[in-house]
Design goal:
Layout (H helix, E strand, L loop, with lengths): L4 E6 L2 H11 L2 H4 L2 H4 L2 E6 L15 E3 L2 E3 L4 H12 L1
Parallel strand pairs: 1-2
Antiparallel strand pairs: 1-3, 3-4
Bound molecules: FE2/S2 (inorganic) cluster.
């Protein structure tokens, strides 16, 4: 079985109100060929407090932090990782 790409979605209040609520349904919005390749997890805060100018919402894909995350950006990143 292939190792899954771990996608953490921030559901902390700051990210949630800034668009994170859309990301929590990521799995249902991914193209079907990617659905089995990822494991989506919720995280309380991925580290916005460490940035001087945080740009929420945040996600983390295979350990790499992404700011201003969107379904589209996350999908592109997953595509690039499975290639
Ligand atoms: S609340 Fe989302 S990264 Fe901090």
């Amino acid at each position: 079985m292939d190792k899954k790409i771990i996608v953490k979605i921030c559901v902390g209040t700051y990210c949630y109100v800034m668009g994170g609520y859309e990301l929590k349904d990521l799995k249902s919005k991914l193209p079907s060929h990617l659905v089995d390749k990822v494991k989506v997890e919720a995280s309380v805060c991925l580290g916005c407090d460490k940035s001087a100018k945080p740009i929420p919402p945040y996600a983390e894909i295979d350990g790499e932090l992404m700011e201003a995350a969107s379904i589209e950006k996350i999908t592109k990143k997953i595509e690039s990782l499975i290639r």
